[in-house]
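Final paragraph of the annual report: two paired records, presented back to back.
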Amino acid sequence: MSTVLRESLGDPSRNKQSFTDVKLKVWCCRYWKLDLWDCHDMAFPFWRIYWNKNPGGMLKHHQNEYLMEKDAIFIILPFTSFSTSFAKNHVHDQGIHVSGRHIDQNDNDELIAKNSLLHLFIHFNLGVPFDNVYPGIFKVEVNPYLEEKLNYLTSRLRKENTKFYVTYTLKLQSIISDILSNIGPELFETLNVDHRILEVIRHVENHIQDSPTNGDLAKIANMATNSFSRLFRQQMNMTLHTFIMKRKIARSCELFLYTHKSIEEVAFDTGFADRYHFSRVFKSVTGTTPAVYKSGRFS
């Protein structure tokens, strides 16, 4: 998925350059003290960056457990099923339970760290097809350059965490890009998606309320249904039906976060017959109910 500069755009060089089209959209960026962090089997449609300034936090993905130390940043890919906990206050073995607040200028990090987690988290998306990378968790070492950036961000969030003006937003985007670029090419397994699959993905994104069949979308790709279904699974590491359901839930999460629509309205807008079917699919994909997600009781 790329764009190419041409002479007609005012470029004096005859050498064509191809750039990857990444559409970074930040949903939230917060620096919190967490007193309780018992979250189990969460799987949401955005990327997450987690960094804890003090030890005691833990991430779990399948059989892998990650102890969260100050020298490591964790990147959680979209739709990755994972759990979190805080060793000093572990209460719940299921569900999503978070207790804490924003850290401001009057707080003392050393005092907070005695009983709570100093937790930076960022939620964002990169656009299609990059939001459909294979689920997983990446660990990135905090080098001096990244540590300086993280300290700037947490310091800035103490003073202002609601209004991200242009310069502030650009700095935040730069930090996200710096962290992602430390992983390497293995992160993006969908960089070279077949153009026919990309065409279908664009159609699904633009018609999220519809429920097309494999045959309907195979026609858009100009392929036989069976051949198209095989190609889609090879390219996207999932069936077409699973992809469509995930994109519907991804859109519903966006609507919950940035509109005041009810669960019934969001279900209708994303093409579900009723609230009950929508709720079943939502929980099967994210691990929680629409009501809990809409309340914002997660981090």
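The closing record of the year follows.
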Amino acid sequence: MSKRILSLLFATSLLLASCGGDKSDLTVEDAETKETEKVEETEKETEEEKTESIEGSRSNPVPIDKKVSQDFEFYNHDDDSSDESYEGNRSITLSNFTRGEEVYNYLMEANQFNEEAPEGMEWAIIDVEYILNEAESEDVAQYVMPEFSIIDSNGSEVAQNKVYPSLDRGNEYGHVELYSGGTAKGKYAFYVPVDDDILIKYDDWNAKAIFFNPN
């Protein structure tokens, strides 16, 4: 075999090796890019799931008997002219959820003038404990009210504007002043669709709303 042919074969081998190396490099880079994109997509999905599953959200409500705490801001209700807000931290617990005839009988014993729930509804009642763990000011009170909304299984609010039940004096939750370290306890009565799994939403506009699952 002539030297010319050998030279041509050697040059061809070098060219093929070079092309093969380029192809291999491209494959590795492509795989790394795909792996990076996959990791970024997984992290994004995880972050979205974490956001959706925040405790107290409608998709992940707080279960009955579990205390939930949050930071919030409140205003001095004794000074309507002031826009100054105060930071605080509070805890809320809902317990002893009861519904149906037992609640109606309880309401009738509390006040004979209490009415039956509207058609298609039944009475329900729950115990509430609200603790003002700490407040920015020791001298300013927060006025605590029963700022609850009832959400049915279809996602609609069950308006509580037809019947207002009365409880025994001192048993009703809210309508009190709390200073730092204070606690408010009481019962909250409301009506719900018969046999429907409902959520209870607490929202006094001082922080993010909290959803509770009493079922």
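The longest strand covers residues 85-99. This concludes the annual technical report; the extension proposal builds directly on these records.
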